């Protein structure tokens, strides 16, 4: 019972790994910033992580629990347009709202940060430069819809048209809400720019890709070791095996947008990193905003 628990640890700020102790770093999925958090957000990831953080602290394990808002991407731009705000103003509003909600629920974050910080830019660009130097990036051409009236390439959420499968007239550039099929925006019939209602044209544009096939052999060897030693669920193993069975494909990591981490490479400086490349790095940058010794948590497998 409670009487048998050891006394609580003396609080330390910042919490850093301690040699010879069990050091536990806990994160929960970064909530997207363009809406009000609801019970599903709390129950789906934050509450379970908080429960484990509290358990870890009761066990006197040296525990750091971080999270934060995921703030880049087209959904933020779209919501900002709807609310008549800049993307940064929208993020500032909803970050504060998220922080207040989690504080009201007494979620025991050691630090609740965000992805729109100088640390995020620095770390994401550094990882990009390392990938580039080691030959893990490719250049290729994609065809995208471009609105000449707005002078911009249209991300999926900025275009709608007729579904090529079922004929629904208000299909989005990524999916049809009527038949549920996924769509490539250039496949839409009668496409329209959602910003000015002009007719976009298909235009080629250069992008950067992660050369995932080059890493496939190393990844398979690593997976075999961790599957043997780790606690992977059957579902996670099945999905991963399916990806490998079909062969990994190069993955685009850039977008023709303005709201995001800038790409630090000549020829691509008018682009930003795709949010699925950028957002996971948020776990590192949020920790880096908590302590300048963040690498002791993220580059320290012995502890």
Can you put this structure into words, describing what you see?
With 303 residues, the protein is α+β, with helices and mostly antiparallel strands. Among the domains are: 154 residues, HUPs (Rossmann fold, 3-Layer(aba) Sandwich), CATH 3.40.50; 55 residues, no CATH class. 37% of the residues lie in helices and 19% in strands. The protein contains nine helices and twelve strands. The strands form four sheets. It has a four-stranded antiparallel sheet with strand order 5-4-9-10, with no helix packed on it. Strands 1-2-3 form a three-stranded parallel sheet, with helices on both faces. Strands 7-6-8 form a three-stranded antiparallel sheet, with no helix packed on it.
> Can you write the helix and strand succession as a string?
EHEHHEHEEEEEEHHEEEHHH
Number of strands: 12
Sheet-strand content, in percent, reads 15-25%
- Order of neighbouring strands in the sheet with most strands: 5-4-9-10
The CATH first-level class of the domain at 1-126 and 275-302 comes to Alpha Beta
Which parts are unreliable, with pLDDT below 50 for 5 consecutive residues or more?
Answer: none
CATH-derived architecture of the domain at 1-126 and 275-302:
3-Layer(aba) Sandwich
Keywords: Aminoacyl-tRNA synthetase, ATP-binding, Ligase, Nucleotide-binding, Protein biosynthesis
GO cellular component, one term: aminoacyl-tRNA synthetase multienzyme complex
Catalytic activity: tRNA(Met) + L-methionine + ATP = L-methionyl-tRNA(Met) + AMP + diphosphate
Organism: Toxostoma redivivum (California thrasher)
């Amino acid at each position: 019972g409670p009487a048998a628990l050891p006394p609580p640890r003396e609080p330390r700020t910042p919490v850093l790994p301690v040699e010879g102790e069990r050091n536990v770093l806990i994160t929960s999925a970064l909530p997207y910033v363009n809406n009000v958090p609801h019970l599903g957000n709390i129950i789906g990831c934050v509450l379970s992580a908080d429960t484990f953080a509290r358990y870890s602290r009761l066990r006197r394990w040296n525990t750091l629990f971080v999270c934060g808002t995921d703030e880049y991407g087209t959904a933020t731009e779209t919501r900002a347009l709807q609310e008549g705000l800049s993307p940064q103003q929208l993020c500032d509003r909803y970050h504060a709202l998220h922080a207040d909600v989690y504080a009201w629920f007494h979620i025991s974050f050691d630090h609740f940060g965000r992805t729109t910080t100088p640390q995020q830019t620095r770390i994401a660009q550094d990882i990009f430069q390392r990938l580039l130097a080691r030959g893990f990036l490719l250049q290729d051409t994609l065809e995208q819809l471009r609105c000449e009236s707005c002078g911009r390439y249209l991300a999926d959420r900025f275009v709608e048209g007729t579904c090529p499968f079922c004929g629904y007239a208000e299909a989005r550039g990524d999916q049809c809400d009527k038949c549920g099929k996924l769509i490539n925006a250039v496949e839409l019939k009668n496409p329209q720019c959602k910003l000015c209602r002009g007719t976009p044209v298909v235009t080629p544009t250069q992008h950067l890709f992660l050369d995932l096939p080059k890493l496939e052999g190393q990844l398979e060897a690593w997976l075999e070791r961790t599957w043997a030693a780790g606690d992977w669920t059957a579902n996670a193993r099945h999905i991963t095996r399916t990806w490998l069975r079909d062969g990994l494909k190069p993955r685009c990591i850039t977008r023709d947008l303005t709201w995001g981490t800038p790409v630090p490479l000549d020829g691509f400086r008018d682009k930003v990193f795709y949010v699925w490349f950028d957002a996971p790095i948020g776990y590192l940058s949020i920790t880096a905003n908590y302590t300048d010794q963040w690498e002791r948590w993220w580059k320290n497998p012995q502890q």
